[in-house]
Amino acid sequence: MGLFIAQLLTGLANAAGLFLVASGLSLIFGVTRIVNFAHGSFYMLGAFIGYSLMQVLPGFFGFWASVLLAGVAVGLIGVIVEICVLRPVYKAPELFQLVATFGVILVIQDLALMTWGAVDVLGPRVPGLKGIVRVLGEPVPQYDLALIALTPFVLFALWYLISKTRIGILVRAATQDREMVGALGVNQAWLFTGVFFLGAALAGIGGAIQLPKGGADLLMDFNILAAIFVVVVIGGMGSLPGAYIAAVLISVLNVFGVTYIPQSTLVLMFVVMAVVLMVKPYGLLGREEVAGEHGQVGEPERPFKPAGTQGRLLVGGLLAILAFVPLFGSSFLSVLVSDVLIFCLFAASLHFILGLGGLVSFGHAAYFGGGAYVAALLVSTVGAPMEVAFLLAPVGACLGAVIIGWLCIRLTGVYFAMLTMAFAQLLWSLVFQWDEFTGGDDGLVDIWPAPWLSGTTAYYYLTLVVGVGGIIFLRHMAHTPFGYALRASRDSKRQAEATGIHTKRIQWAAFAFAGAMAGLAGSLFVFSKGSIFPTELEIARSFDALIVIFLGGVKTLSGAVVGGASLEFVKDFLTRFEYWRLTLGLLIIVVVILAPDGIVGSLRKFGERLGVLRGVEN
Amino acid sequence: MQLRKTSIGIAMVAMMGLFSGVAQAAETIKVGEINHYKRMAAFANPYKDGINLGLDEINAAGGVLGKPLEFIFRDDQGKPGEAIKIAEELMTRDGAVMLTGTILSHVGLAISSYAGEKEHLYLASEPLADALVWEKGNEYTFRLRTSTYMQASMLAEAAAKTSAKTYATIAPNYAYGKDAVAAFKKALLKLRPDVKFVTEQWPALFKIDAGAEVQAIERAKPDAIYNVTFGGDLAKFVREGTTRGLFEGRKVYGLLTGEPEYIDPLKDEAPVGWVVTGYPWYDFKSGPNKVFVDAYMAKYNASPGIGSLVGYMTAKSVAAGITAAGSTDTEALVKAFKGLTLQTPVGEITFRKQDHQSTMGAFVGTTALRDGGGVMVNWEYKEGADYLPSDEEVKMMRPAAK
């Protein structure tokens, strides 16, 4: 019994920090609709700044002052980010801002490395709270009890702020309908900035307050990201009490998971999330997403049209150049171009459901990595010939997408995104932990192509044909009745259904098709690298594709390919330098601000203004 | 439309010009070094410094084969796919004669597989995975650092001497942690069949829930604990364990815990009385170990980590291998590396013919506090050769290699 209580207390103490960080994310999302990937970075900054302050402010009060000051400092950093990076892009398509926050992550990573160095720091203990208290004979750290006692006050303070003050009323109103709030004369810009300050400050306090239980290191930004997204989604996006309940649920379950199923702790969190979302699609205390925006943000989307003769000629010319790469370029250039082509196919497959279907998947790596694993497992376990494995990979990925799609498609918007992420993470943790079958973290190696394809040049041509073929096929699908039906389902579900389109079925089919194409890219990938590891299933991989789509232009057909190629080439170039993450991050931010329609979209507008391109006929 | 396509075209042509640059005349002998310089900066930077110190000495003495030796350092972001792309570039465009590097085991395994397929020489300097030289070992891959198996066996030997009967293990839930626990169990049960493992804890790497782990171990009431956690996980585990009195009256064995990279961040909270493997650079009084530490501190004005030593030995091994081969031809290099013997700060090491593992050993000692920081005392250097499996076992474990 004593142990049970002690474990429960440990879980509650862990929930405190998690809740602080997650509530900040929830607030920011609720009001600004920004999925803030950089929230983990704010958390990391809070830990480092808190640590530095604690070195100069001694004693019990020094500690708590440091925690608060770290919160304020991070809040101010959040304000700078909001004003400099996000404000210019609020008018961009929905979710575009996440690309900007991704740039912020990169910048903060390098700045933190420059400021605090590479070595992990151990957080100081709190003077006066170093000892333990015996609860029914079991030791419980005093600091844990302090955290448990503190959280209800924080929750109450936030609740009071949100429910009882004028600011809170505005925030809630903005959460429900921000355009109406703007129409009623509230300065939205400062409301958003204020919320960003509060959200970032909460993350900073969360980072500083966990110092006595650990420390600060440069990997903590990504390490907490998945957990806080899970908490926010289980609780319901934008709901503070929900975030608290979810934080407690996850933390307590985890503590007992450690005791009873120590091997499977990675999976647990995502299983819980998947179950909750399937039973309560909007989280425990979340409300149904109001399709809130009155129509779309920004200008209306332009109709797609097939490329004209000149466009085709240019693509043909480009392909001819690519076909000659092995003859004139170095063997490395072939490898680089193959990598880029594979990535572009992967990104284009996501773009198909995201751009045409409006289905934002945060877990598309599941099909890319999944396809690669299908091929690798066929080769390594049953000794299938490479050609067979190569062709079965997209089939496997498609099957996976059919199953996951069936479970996810009932949801929309950001909840759909989160559920796809949960399933991708489930697959990742399964591959990661089932090492007898998948090789776990050590992956599957020695998966090389058949002899007739094994040369760099031969494999390059395979990649060129399959990769470009896949991309063209995806593009072609946009102009088929299926593509039109998909766009109809995105733009107006009701009207589409009135014309006899089974929208969910169309979306489900599109999801499966995109999965298959991602699997094809994965298949190309595994045989070009000769090995596959769980890293290809990670969240970061899904984000890679997501980011290049927005960077290239989500409302264009070629956005994914242009964005993918640009980012990959730039990355290949920049990683040769010391502070490449800072440079890349700043570059992304600059591109995002200068080209809010993505590279393709903005270039097209620029071309129209110059008169080189014809504009839309009204 | 036009503009867009044209601009891509121009970009592609520009890129091709950029990347297909003419190979430079080979004035130096180049080695391609791939590592996670950003993702694992705390470990990779001392390693890089170690290599540069080694290069200074090698080139001051006239280089290799009459030419200066040069390392090209490249960051792979910790991604295996990226590492392979860079490996290809280093070997085919930059004119590197061989590859070195990586800390993360899975990246090491990816490069090793690539090296085997494309027939390039790869000296895996820091990755610890046993599979690298055994299950997945190949003709073209050699490994320098003392492997998981060897270090775990050293700790098991120390553990077997005590009266502890029940053990708890805690290890990060990924390949390295699993290897480390399996090797320790195997070695300990061989020496002490009466020992029981009462609980195994598997926190997710860098996501440890330390309070819960400590409670779970406490619940099993073991006589001794075997710890494989490191980095931030170790700090949290030590703090929670100390606060909750987990380590009182228990023997603790810590793999890598004594390495400066891991014990230094703990400062005055470093655990006391743990038996660990590590690198006691502060205690060398004389000999080649001392010479290396002095030279390193003189050049960088910083204390060396285990990575510094491995980096230095990497440069020295490469130089010795190329000199012995008498050429930079891959087949000649592979032949030279098999059984290659050289002098290093820790003594003579040999790259074994049978599995390409070097016989570099490790320092085993007990942790203590000195001047507000953790150190190792009563340490001893254990020869790596004594902790490797027999030739017959190796043959069984190495199916992939010729």
Summarize the structure.
In chain A, 72% of the residues lie in helices and 3% in strands. By secondary structure, chain A is mainly alpha-helical.
Give short descriptive properties of this protein.
heterodimer; A: ABC transporter involved in vitamin B12 uptake, BtuC; 2 domains; two-stranded antiparallel sheet; two-stranded antiparallel ribbon; globular; B: 402 residues; alpha/beta; Rossmann fold; 5-stranded parallel beta sheet; 13 helices
| Measured distance between first and last alpha carbons of chain A | 74 Å
Tell me the number of structural domains of chain B. 2
Determine the number of helices of chain A (DSSP H or I, runs of at least 4 residues): 25
**CATH architectural type of the largest domain in chain B:** 3-Layer(aba) Sandwich
The shape of chain B, in one word, is: globular
Biggest sheet descriptor of chain B? 7 strands, mixed
Structural class of chain B: alpha/beta
Q: Could you name the CATH class of the largest domain in chain B? A: Alpha Beta
**Kindly, what is the distance between the CA atoms of the first and last residues of chain B, rounded to a whole number of angstroms?**
55 Å
For the biggest β-sheet of chain A, the strand order reads 1-4
What is the number of E strands of chain A? 6
How many discrete domains of chain A?
2
CATH fold title of the largest domain in chain B: Rossmann fold
* Tally of individual helices of chain B: 13
Q: Proportion of β residues of chain A?
A: under 5%
Profile the largest sheet of chain A: 2 strands, antiparallel
